[in-house]
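Lab manual, section 2.4: Encoding a predicted structure.

Procedure: take the sequence of the chain (467 residues), apply the prediction step described in section 2.3, and record the output as structure tokens. A sample record is shown.
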Amino acid sequence: MYFKQFYDTDLAQGSYLIGCQATGEAVVVDPRRDVAVYLADAAANGLRVTVVTETHIHADYLSGARELAAATGAALRLSAEGGPDWLYAFEHEPLRHGDVIDVGNVRLTALHTPGHTPEHLSFLVTDRARSDEPTMVLTGDFVFVGDLGRPDLLDEAAGYQDTRYEGARQLFRSLKERFLTLPDHVQVWPGHGAGSACGKALGAVASSTVGYERLTAWWADHLANDDVEGFVAALLEGQPDAPSYFGRMKRQNRAGPALLGARAPLKEFTADELRGRVNRDLVLVDTRTTREQWSASVPGALAVPGGRSFATYAAWVIDPEVERRPIVLLASDAARAAALRDRLTYVGIDGVVGYLPSLEGLDTQPLPLVTPAELEALPGAHVLDVRTASEHAAGHVPGSQQLHAGRVLQRLAELPRGGTLVLHCQSGGRSLVVASALRNRGFGNVVELEGSYEAWRAHQRREVVEG
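Recorded output:
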């Protein structure tokens, strides 16, 4: 059996290629839209992708299952367990509890494990060339290392009300009837790791075992004592804010993501070609670091640093269902721009047409910043904390308003239009993104707290010591 996890740090998401080396057949589970990585790895290992599947209708990224099936001619097998509201709306082969996917000597058995979503499947993997005992289970967003998938996303992202309680009870039953009935030796390979918003306390370790989770997971005692209500309360408490774009991902993944096909090379733009067009008939996305953008920025550019959370940050401030203007990336070279373009497709932002290699020739200006000391002397400033609710609760600037960065643009009515609006996050990256989007939406006096909350805390400690 051949097994490989493809882990993307942007989404904190894992997808899987599993194959039989004897027959050359392979299945891919939960693929992203940049399907070339699976094709290249399969070819390098003498495999061909014959089946594509996924654990559920995702909310945090756009599925590549349809893309990969189209690229390979593979069978596309998707869950039919969600009832009429959560059936896939495009052509596929239905997959139900107990159905099997065979790729040579390797068998994946579908297990219906609802709770995170109604249609959710896990896949029990058996390498029949070695044993009839299962070797691993791909749990998707059902069981994570040390945590569970949140059951509230239909409420938070899909417009439903109070489905979280039944979802939590379904998770309890799925654990009791599916997960904990598996042998302790079975490896657990989840769909997400630390940093994902699909749970609240995901471990940073790539995998676990059924036995280890039975012994150590926070939910284990609730299951051992058949404590349903205690489990529900503990599961729902403290879930992170869900970004607004999750609702769009749900809709598009159910309807069927657009097929990308072969990607055209990106055009290299010059400063002359962009002058006077930024935030008018095109969107310039500045992918440089936070500090580089604080020092010099093109007025009207959208700030999205090209680090590990690039796609997530971009989805907070670019809604491709509304934004139809072409997108140009400020990126150092063609290879960097192409890589960033591919990452944007994870969240359905497909409108990138080119890149600008440098700011040379364009008018720039430093972004408006205030230091923590200056903030104390700034009368009438409204401080907006764009961190999560749990981060804010752990410590915040007195009098600040908390609003998750991924929800700000959908809740503009809650922000003051007059006076100075001071944004901060933990270290500056998230607030940079949101501040640029607010300026482009007509908020006039938007400034950022230099060094963000980390700098503010350091300033407070210095004042205590010096005082």
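Check your result against the sample. Residues 369-466 form a domain with the Oxidized Rhodanese; domain 1 fold (CATH 3.40.250.10).
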